[in-house]
Structure formats: structure tokens, C-alpha cells
């Protein structure tokens, strides 16, 4: 069995509303590049990659000739072909490798007639629990609905998600407004849903002093962890020594060298494993084993997924015995998906792991064509820019906060 073709399609899939974060905004849609690897015997494996609001097709076109003729089961060889650790200093292909790995494992599962989770070691759970992923949001440009800016709007939004999807863990994405305002928002969540658990993520834009202050102020809440309050392992170490919460990261421990550094001198307690950032599903399973050995917690991180990558998150989450935290997903913010059957369903805050061979999902060709046309119509967007604040740049640590009293809405192509 050999790789005979590599095809890519960039799609733009609408969100319920634009999602604000510390460094900018998702401008009302996710731009994702779908990858299809076809073998010489006709099997097609699926992958997916983001690009910060931009297409990644050119990157895959550049490596296509390297892949043709390779055996998709030789994943370690493919790893060094695409992301040799020294060559990758010049062409960081970790996320590209991840999309290729997804597709190859999908092919192997189809060939062998088993779900990818069985290739990764076998399931210890059939469903993966998720946290609500709460964002401050601009209103939907078409309907004017969906804004989340005030405490009241945040509570209403969280309550609606809890009732609709069954979430019992809640993550608030911060770093948008001044820390004092976001503290009031987070405390309000704790007061409203006190029987649930909580986590806060300001995307590493606080100073060490701000992070320590915030961590002490939320000491009475049922916190899973405080995620990336500051940037850098040294900053995380300083905060960790002075706050009562566990610290989590998806920014400063995203490869095995960083994981080793954190093991030798602990700055982070919970490693959030992202199937894209870590270079695939198999590295996440390997990293989870290291974390189990050194008593580090793990979670499943979300980098903004459609159904193909969500399937990878589910298969990974299914096989990790030491997964004790509800996973993250942007998925419920999507208005639609590109897989057959539409969006996967949440039941009691969890999604069932696909049972079909491989990833267990197939592309809906009509949806792919529809959202590929949307990408051609709208183009990409700058993930690291705020559409309401042209010229604004987030600093680290940041001091240029958005004004929570500013009720203006940006004009966004939609």
C-alpha cells in the first residue's frame, strides 16, 4: 500500500458569533484546510489543519511529491521525512505532520477494519466529557445576536450552553478586558453554577504580579486549574509557587524537550495535549505516558476544530487512562460542519467516540463544496487582530485592554 495522491481543500465554516481572545479574534468563522491522502488501492484518509485564519494549502502542495510512493503505515519514517528535528528549525512542519498522521491513521484503521483508538492502544472510555468553552463575543454580523460582553450576557450564555449540551465544567477565555473586570465575570460564573468546576485562560498576557493576584482572588472557587496566566516556564514557576491553583498550559509545554524541562523543574501541573500542536495523535499518547509517570495531569486541548480534528481528539481522549479533566472544544460554537451527518452530538456534556473504522467520519462533499466557496468569497482573516481596534497589538504582558463598556460592533465580512 502506497500513497498515490494528496489533495487539500480550504473551507470557511461559520461560527455562531465572532470569538474574542487575548490576541485578537476569530472573525465569525473558522478557516481550516482539509487534507485527503489517497492510496494506490483507493483508500482515502482524512486530516485537518488550521492556519490562524489562513489557508495552508501551499504548504501541502510543497510536500506532495515527497509523500507520493510512501507507505502510510511507516509513520515514524514519515515523521523524519516531514519534521526532522534539526531540519524543522528552518521549516516548522509539526502541524503539517499532524494532519498527515491523522490521514494515515485513518487509512490504517480502514484497512484493518478498526477505529483509530484501537490502533492507539484501545479504549478505556466510550465517551469523552467536554467543558463549555466560554468566550467574550461580538454579535453575529447578520443577526445582531450572540454578544457576550457583560456579566449578565456571560451568565445567560453559560446557562444556555449548560442546558443545551449538559456541560458541568466551564472554561472562560480571558485576556480581553482588564483583569479586575474578568475576575468579576469569573466569580459570577462560580456563584451561578457553584456545583460545577471551572477553569480560566487569559492566553498568557498577564504579568507575574497580575497572575498571582488573580490566583489568590479565586482561591475559594472550585477550580480545575488556571491556564497559561503568564508566558514562559520561568514565569509559570514563579506564579505556581504563590497561588493555590494547579497551573495548566498549551503554550509552553508543547513538545518533549519542554516536557522534560518541566519534569526536571516543575512550572506546570497539567499538560493540555493538542493533536495538532504536538504533531499528531501518537505524540499525545506518548506524552500522556510521560505525564502519568511523573504525576502530571493531562487534558485534551482545542485549537479550533471541525469534525475531522474533533474525531482525533475523541480517539485520543478515549485511550488515555490518566485523563481526569473534561476536554476543551470550540466545536459547539460552530454553526455547521463538513462531515456526513452534520455536527456530532453532545449528550450530558460528552461526545461518543466514533465506532467506524479509521477516524469514523467521512466528508460531506456538498458541505465541503459550499464552504470552499465561502472561503473563496470571504478569504482568510487575521487571527491575531481585533476587527474593532485597527492597529492594536497585544503586548506580553499586556496593558492595552478592551473597554467592557464599549458596545460597538465591528463590520466583519460574513
From TrEMBL:
Pfam families: MR_MLE_C, MR_MLE_N. One of its GO terms (molecular function) is glucarate dehydratase activity. SMART domains: MR_MLE (SM00922). Keywords: Lyase. Gene3D superfamilies: Enolase-like C-terminal domain, Enolase-like, N-terminal domain. Its EC number is 4.2.1.40. InterPro entries: DgoD-like, Enolase-like_C_sf, Enolase-like_N, Enolase_C-like, Mandel_Rmase/mucon_lact_enz_CS, Mandelate_racemase_C, Mandelate_racemase_N_dom. It comes from the Bacteria. GO terms for biological process: amino acid catabolic process. Pathway: Carbohydrate acid metabolism; D-glucarate degradation; 2,5-dioxopentanoate from D-glucarate: step 1/2. Residues 151-246 form the Mandelate racemase/muconate lactonizing enzyme C-terminal domain. It catalyses: D-glucarate = 5-dehydro-4-deoxy-D-glucarate + H2O. This is glucarate dehydratase. The lineage of its organism: Bacteria, Pseudomonadati, Acidobacteriota, Blastocatellia, Blastocatellales.
Amino acid at each position: 500500500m502506497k500513497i498515490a495522491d494528496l489533495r487539500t481543500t480550504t473551507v470557511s465554516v461559520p461560527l455562531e458569533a465572532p470569538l474574542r481572545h487575548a490576541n485578537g479574534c476569530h472573525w465569525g468563522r473558522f478557516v481550516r484546510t482539509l487534507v485527503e491522502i489517497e492510496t494506490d488501492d483507493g483508500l482515502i484518509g482524512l486530516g485537518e489543519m488550521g492556519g490562524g485564519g489562513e489557508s495552508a494549502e501551499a504548504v501541502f502542495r510543497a510536500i506532495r511529491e515527497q509523500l507520493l510512493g510512501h507507505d502510510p503505515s511507516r509513520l515514524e519514517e514519515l515523521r523524519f521525512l516531514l519534521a526532522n528535528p534539526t531540519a524543522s528549525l528552518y521549516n516548522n512542519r509539526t502541524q503539517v505532520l499532524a494532519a498527515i498522521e491523522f490521514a494515515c491513521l485513518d487509512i490504517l484503521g480502514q484497512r484493518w477494519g478498526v477505529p483509530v483508538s484501537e490502533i492507539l492502544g484501545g479504549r478505556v472510555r466510550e465517551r469523552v466529557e467536554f467543558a463549555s468553552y466560554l468566550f467574550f463575543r461580538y454579535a453575529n454580523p447578520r443577526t445582531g445576536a450572540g454578544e457576550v460582553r457583560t456579566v449578565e450576557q456571560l451568565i445567560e450564555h453559560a446557562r444556555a450552553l449548560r442546558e443545551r449540551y449538559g456541560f458541568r465544567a466551564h472554561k472562560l477565555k480571558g485576556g480581553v478586558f482588564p483583569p479586575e473586570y474578568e475576575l468579576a465575570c469569573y466569580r459570577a460564573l462560580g456563584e451561578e453554577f457553584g456545583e460545577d468546576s471551572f477553569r480560566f485562560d487569559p492566553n498568557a498576557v498577564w504579568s507575574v504580579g497580575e497572575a498571582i493576584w488573580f490566583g489568590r482572588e479565586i482561591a475559594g472557587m472550585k477550580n480545575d486549574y488556571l491556564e497559561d496566566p503568564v508566558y514562559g516556564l520561568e514565569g509559570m514557576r514563579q506564579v505556581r509557587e504563590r497561588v493555590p491553583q494547579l497551573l495548566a498550559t498549551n503554550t509552553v509545554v508543547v513538545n518533549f524537550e519542554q516536557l522534560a524541562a518541566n519534569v526536571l523543574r516543575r512550572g506546570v501541573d497539567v499538560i493540555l495535549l493538542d493533536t495538532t500542536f504536538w504533531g499528531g495523535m501518537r505524540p499525545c499518547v506518548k506524552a500522556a505516558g510521560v505525564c502519568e509517570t511523573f504525576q502530571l495531569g493531562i487534558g485534551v486541548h482545542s485549537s479550533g476544530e471541525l469534525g475531522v480534528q474533533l474525531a482525533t481528539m475523541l480517539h485520543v481522549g478515549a485511550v488515555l487512562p490518566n485523563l481526569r479533566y473534561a476536554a476543551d472544544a470550540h466545536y459547539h460554537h460552530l454553526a455547521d460542519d463538513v462531515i456526513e451527518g452534520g455536527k456530532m452530538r453532545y449528550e450530558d456534556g460528552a461526545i461518543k467516540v466514533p465506532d467506524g473504522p479509521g477516524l469514523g467520519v467521512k466528508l460531506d462533499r456538498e458541505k465541503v463544496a459550499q464552504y470552499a466557496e465561502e472561503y473563496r468569497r470571504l478569504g482568510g482573516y487575521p487571527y491575531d487582530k481585533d476587527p474593532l481596534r485597527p492597529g492594536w497589538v497585544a503586548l506580553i504582558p499586556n496593558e492595552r485592554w478592551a473597554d467592557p463598556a464599549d458596545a460597538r460592533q465591528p463590520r466583519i465580512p460574513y
